[in-house]
Amino acid sequence: MNPQNQFTTDLKLPYSAVNANGKIKADWLLNIFQDAASHQCDAFGISGFDMAKKKLKWVVAQYNIHIHDHVDWLSPMRLTTSRAPWKNLYEVRQFSLTSEDGTCLVEACGIWILIRAETGRPVRLAPHMPGELMQVSASEPELFKPPGEFGEFHHETGRQARFLDLDLNQHVNNRVYLRWAVESLPEPYCFDYTPVQCRVAYLKEGLYSHRILSRIKLEFTQAGLTTGHSIFNETTETELARLLIKWEKIPQRFSANGS
């Protein structure tokens, strides 16, 4: 990361970010990534609110998240993010979450694009960004090329997009798709495994009250479990997001009382 282009914040893992297995909620990570990115963008004058004045919108195209180590409740952590343009079309943002002793707990890469609010079409970054932010380009990110049709699915869950699932663009927020995917892992596997890598490709926007189907394909391996996910609008059959998640077996089921 370029030290001149970093935003850093200190935090502690809150109780609300811990799931039933005592592990960090994967979708919570996207919340803190979004918050850190927004704080840095605000300082540059390129936040979502700033772009809205130009009738533009930031949208997330992809996420690649690696969870390297367990994080305990109230653990002090440092979140660092930096951004750089790629091909004048993509805003590539790196994230790292480290412990007090500098151990890397989580690292991630997100790719944003800037679109016109009226048409949804991407625009070049340079005309809408301060010149100094375009001087150093990002190296080519490790793109997630969504696999073709997964074929057979083993489980599906249905739900409706709620008001609180929406962001300022009035689209389903990017973190919600990851939550829907994680929640589609059926019992007992949801209690036996924890995600360690999440790759997400956002394909189309989800809107308020839309009926959503989240389908999952399970593949057990020597290393654990790999799942493929397709999330789509049930009415129009439009695919909204495709995900690939790698899971690790939890040595024993978590119990808050130690039993």
Explain how this protein is built.
It is a single chain. This protein has a ten-stranded antiparallel beta sheet with strand order 1-3-4-5-2-7-10-9-8-6. It has two domains: 1-141, Hotdog Thioesterase (Thiol Ester Dehydrase, Chain A), CATH 3.10.129.10; 144-254, Thiol Ester Dehydrase, Chain A (Roll). 15% of the residues lie in helices and 39% in strands. The chain is mainly β and 259 residues long.
Descriptive key words:
Thiol Ester Dehydrase, Chain A, mainly beta, 259 residues, globular, 39% strand, single chain, 2 domains, 10-stranded antiparallel beta sheet
Total of DSSP H or I helical runs spanning 4+ residues? 4
What percentage of the residues does DSSP assign to strands (E)? 35-45%
What's the Cα radius of gyration?
Answer: 19 Å
- Unreliable stretches (pLDDT < 50, length at least 5) are none
Query: Which CATH first-tier class of the largest domain would you pick?
Result: Alpha Beta
Nearest-integer average pLDDT: 93
Helix content: 10-25%
- Find the structural class using helix and strand composition: mainly beta
Please list the strands of the largest sheet in the order they lie side by side. Answer: 1-3-4-5-2-7-10-9-8-6
By CATH, the topology of the largest domain is Thiol Ester Dehydrase, Chain A
The CATH architecture name of the largest domain reads Roll
- Please identify which CATH superfamily of the largest domain we are dealing with: Hotdog Thioesterase
Order of helices and strands: EHHEEEEEHHEEEE
What's the story with the biggest beta sheet?
10 strands, antiparallel
Rough outline: globular
Please provide the count of β strands.
10
Distance between the termini: 44 Å
